[in-house]
Specification:
Number of helices: 22
Strand order of the largest sheet: 3-4-14-9-10-13
Low-confidence stretches: none
Number of strands: 15
Shape: globular
Mean pLDDT: 94
Bound molecules: pyridoxal-5'-phosphate
CATH class of the domain at 91-108 and 232-430: Alpha Beta
Radius of gyration: 22 Å
Largest sheet: 6 strands, mixed
Structural class: alpha/beta
């Protein structure tokens, strides 16, 4: 059963928590108790594939889903039709004690696919289980990665429509192409004249507009969100921590029971929090190392206990980590305070009203038993991409390079030689311009066309361009709608009522 981190909603089953997304008190759903594993259970993971591992883990959390339902969700999501590596989340050895967990073999070449391929299956199963007759409308404002991954995940899912708004001039050319060429009978993509903040504010206002929501409900539509506060996005991320560990043991890199450290490039704190669940369940994880770019609000928090969102926002080469408010941190606070929902609510209202909160020394000490943190600027990130490429002949995207650098600093500063698993969150081809700049003299290129750069990167490194990215060059554009920021609600009505 699930409870809100702020205490008001409790005894929600998983299907209800996934359908609701966020609790009515503004809190996030957490399981009331975290299931514990045994050594025998862990051993059983070693010789089974990703899908079977997924089943064993999700079964512990989504206890109201039947075995058949879970199996169907998993088999639909994690297939080789959608992932270009049969391992789904392959573990790549780099040296004796350094490994990379590649989470970008899904359809959009970024780690969001690991959760957004299965969330739609879990949600549509939840609708059936809770006898929901209405249609769910997934509304998303995106600065790039999430929108595309949500579109791919939700396309042609029954009883669901998805509308993605993106800032007209605020996404990369590849990201825009990925979205405007999206196929599927239930998908809509709209450019908003404005920046990402305008777009996100527009979507938030629509979620909070009671009259508008009531009007939609009368027509049989219920708005919902696909962002990482939904438990249905977090739970599937726990799987790959276990899978990576099982692969370490399977390949003889590690003796079962010995600890590993994970280094995670972090934005909204969703990915690394899934690692925290894995550790609480009993997976032998030593430290969870939180890597940030120049937007280092989490580094400061994990070092001082002070979370202060009042700071300058930097646009960086690792844009998926450009964030000032890490929503999933609220779930960590719930556990650190031993489930004190009054305390969590207080921290969250301080953040909202004053822009900052301080957890104090005792809680900070508890956090630091598990977490370590550092941040890397763009200059060092690009140098890292080059160093890794030269030393190991391995190509990383900027997000992964940030993690790699932080992992090295951790080892230098602590002397902890436990095997490190760098969590790799995007294909280097998705951020081709930064990667090319790092390993080659990109300014000598006559034309910085996206497809020329993809080819050039492939030529230089011998790595294959992911098929879905290469296919964009000739994919027909099917979404050309552009709207003013004040017209987003009207556009939604137009889309929903005209397709009925
Ligand atoms: C979303 C994203 C992240 C950040 O993950 P969180 O779960 O928000 O911490 C890191 N790297 C890439 C490429 C992403 O798309």
């Amino acid at each position: 059963m699930y409870i809100s981190t702020r205490g008001e909603n409790h005894n929600f089953c998983a299907a209800e928590a996934i359908k609701a997304g966020i609790a009515t008190d503004g809190g996030l759903f957490v399981p009331m108790s975290v299931p514990k594993i045994t050594a025998k259970w862990l051993t059983e993971l070693i010789n089974i594939d990703y899908r079977k591992r997924a089943f064993k883990i999700l079964q512990l959390f989504l206890t109201d889903y039947s075995d058949e339902e879970l199996t169907l969700c998993i088999e639909t999501a994690y297939t080789t039709a959608k992932f270009d590596d049969a391992a789904i989340a392959p573990l790549v050895p780099i040296s004796d004690n350094k490994f990379v967990l590649e989470l970008w073999h899904g359809p959009t070449s970024a780690f969001k696919d690991m959760a957004l391929q299965i969330l739609p299956q879990l949600l549509s199963t939840a609708l059936r289980k809770t006898n929901e007759n209405g249609e769910i409308v997934i509304l998303t404002a995106t600065s790039g990665d999430t929108g595309k991954a949500a579109l791919e995940g939700f396309k042609d899912v029954e009883q669901v429509k998805i509308i993605v708004f993106y800032p007209h001039d605020g996404v990369s050319p590849i990201q825009r192409l990925q979205m405007v060429t999206q196929t599927g009978s239930n998908v809509n993509v709209v450019a908003v004249r404005g920046n990402f903040d305008d777009t996100q504010t527009g979507v938030k206002n629509i979620f909070n507009d009671v009259t508008f929501n009531d009007e939609l409900r009368v027509q049989g539509f219920q708005l919902s969100s696909a962002n990482s506060i939904n438990w249905g996005r977090l739970a599937p991320q726990i799987i790959y921590y276990f899978s990576a560990y099982a692969d370490m043991v399977k390949n003889g890199y590690l003796q079962q029971g010995k600890p590993v450290n994970f280094v995670v490039p972090t934005g909204n704190f969703g990915n690394i929090l899934a690692g925290y669940y894995a550790k609480q369940m009993g997976l032998p994880i030593g430290k969870l190392i939180c890597a940030s770019n120049s937007n280092n609000v989490l580094t400061e928090f994990l070092r001082t206990g002070v979370y202060n969102r009042e700071r300058i926002f930097h646009k960086t080469a690792s844009p998926s980590m450009d964030i000032l408010i890490s929503s999933n941190l609220e779930r960590l606070l719930y556990y650190i305070t031993d489930g004190d929902t009054v305390q969590v609510s207080r921290f969250m209202s301080e953040l909202n009203d004053a822009g900052h909160y301080n957890v104090g020394e005792e809680y900070l000490a508890a956090i630091q038993q598990t977490f370590w943190a550092d941040c890397v600027d763009d200059h060092d990130t690009l140098r890292m991409i080059q160093d890794i490429y030269e030393e190991y002949n391995y190509l990383t995207d900027p997000h992964t390079a940030v993690a790699w650098q932080v992992g090295e600093r951790y080892r230098q500063q602590t002397g902890d030689e436990a095997p490190q698993i760098i969590v790799s969150t995007a294909s280097p081809f998705k951020f081709n311009e930064s990667v090319l700049t790092a390993i080659d003299d990109v300014d000598t290129m006559s034309e910085k066309n996206e497809f020329v750069m993809l080819e050039k990167l492939s030529e230089l490194t011998g790595c294959l361009v992911p098929a879905a990215l290469a296919a964009l060059e000739n994919a027909p554009v099917c979404h050309e709608m552009v709207c003013e920021k004040q017209d987003m609600a009207t556009v939604i009505k137009h889309i929903l009522y005209s397709n009925k």
